[in-house]
Amino acid sequence: MTKVEHQNVTVLSDHGLRTLDAHWRAANYLAAGQIYLMANPLLTEPLLPEHTKPRLLGHWGTGAPLPGSPSSTPTSTG
User: Does residue 78 sit within a domain?
Assistant: First the structure.
């Protein structure tokens, strides 16, 4: 990452942005799978109604934070 001193902003490289995006998508997939899927989490076969839970149970706190939420806002380390 490159630090731009006069703007006090950290800029991600293209590789860093792609890596962050991949992790974000994986975290969202895992969170959705925990809530909606009962079987076939790796989608090794076409998704069928019997793979989904009849009653949705789960906790969104296990997933990636929503954009703009306090837990997704970067903090300054000084």
Answer: no
